[in-house]
Amino acid sequence: MKVDQKNLDIERIKEDFIQLNSTLLKSGISFSKLQKTSLGKSPTVYNTVTWCTALFIIIIGLGYQLHLFQQIVKYTRGVRCIIPNNYFLWEGTRPISDCQYCLDVESPIILYNISRNDFRSYAYSSKPIVVKGAFLNWPAFKYFNFTFFKNLYDQTEGGYKSVDDECQFLHFKSDFISLRDVLSMNSARINNEPGTKSWYVGWGNCHSEILQRMRQYYPKPHFLPEDCEIPSKEYIFMGYDDGATMHLDFISRLMWQAQLKGSKKWILKPSPECEDICKTITFLVEPGDAVLVDTRVWYHGTSILPGEFSLSIQSEYG
Ligand SMILES: *[C@@H]1O[C@H](CO)[C@@H](O)[C@H](O)[C@H]1NC(C)=O
Ligand SMILES: *[C@@H]1O[C@H](CO)[C@@H](O)[C@H](O)[C@H]1NC(C)=O
Ligand SMILES: O=C(O)CCC(=O)C(=O)O
Ligand SMILES: [Fe+2]
Questions:
Q1: I need a surface site. Which of 52, 64, 100, 248 has the fewest CB within 10 A?
Q2: Domains and their CATH numbers in the chain
């Protein structure tokens, strides 16, 4: 690239950058909120200046793509109340995809009653997959509910603190600041009764005793490869209506999710460099279904069918 062209592009990036900052602030996000809010699965929260600087350095350091940057800005504008630092860092550092994961994908691969052996060819494809009714016979399918988790955390020493400190709490659009907050709401709100504020949250279970007690209610998904590694952390997502806002995950493996209660709509959008050749897809998962998405390359958002309470557990595998 010629030097003149490069200077010109840097100027344009700077302009985009300034615009992005003012967009975020204009949309009502205070600096303190920007600092407190995070999405994706990295517990690290940077302040605005830090992520701006980091992005700048990464993009310029990589000999950036202006197109990609504009796409990121475009995505971010549509997303309120999210600090995009994780996407930015992830977007800036992840390798540019060859779009194989989304090419010709119009819907998820739907599987029924799949054996471990037959699943082998799908396991690491990064293609979205739904295994219908995979977990209908899990004890967790019957026993997990709001009260189960409230009791589990109330009764386990250090449970709440583990989420505050290291396991991560995701409040999405709801006004909770901690898991303790969520699990002590009144019963009208638990049941999303009229006049109460709708809510949707997620959190990591990385406390060893909590994880051990949860895992008494479900095995490793039967179709995953025998030798695949599952980390010592599982997520719970629960609540109503809006679900998770569009984001990419800053994680190192693929993921599986068990939909235990409620029907959840997923929206998957290809990463910016694949947007012109791949499609955005939406699909529904129902209680008992497994869903597998490469959430590192598919932007994903969820919503829950009106009037239904959704409960899912999720882990990585690789
Ligand atoms: C599922 O697959 C197993 C083994 O392939 C078979 O024995 C069983 O009948 C199947 N069940 C259903 C509901 O199709
Ligand atoms: C949760 O499940 C337990 C055990 O199955 C049941 O007794 C309880 O009523 C359920 N609570 C809610 C809020 O659904
Ligand atoms: O299940 C949800 O609502 C969001 C899940 C999610 O963000 C993820 O699977 O990475
Ligand atoms: Fe995610």
A1: 100
A2: 5-93 (no CATH), 109-317 (2.60.120.650)
Ligand 2 pocket member 139 (CB < 6 A) = no
- 129 CB neighbour count, 10 Å cutoff: 21
Residue 228 near residue 284 (C-beta atoms within 8 A):
no
Q: Which residue has the higher pLDDT, 180 or 26?
A: 180
**CA proximity to 317, closest of 141, 146, 159, 129:** 129
Cα 255 to ligand 3 centroid, rounded to whole Å: 10
Q: How confident is the model at residue 133 (pLDDT cuts 50, 70, 90)?
A: very high
Paired tokens of 245: 């806002």
**Mutate-to-test residue for ligand 2 from 145, 150, 309, highest number of ligand atoms within 8 A of CB:** 145
**Closest ligand 3 atom number to CA of residue 41:** 10
pLDDT digits (tens, 9 = 90+) for 20-47: 544 444 444 443 443 344 344 433 333 3
* Maximum separation of any 2 CA atoms in the chain, in Å: 65
144 lines ligand 2 (CB under 6 A): no
Q: Whose CA is nearest to atom 4 of ligand 3?
A: 244
Token couple for 198: 């709708």
| Bridging pattern class, strands 129-132 and 109-112 | parallel
Neighbours of 180 (CB within 10 A): 16
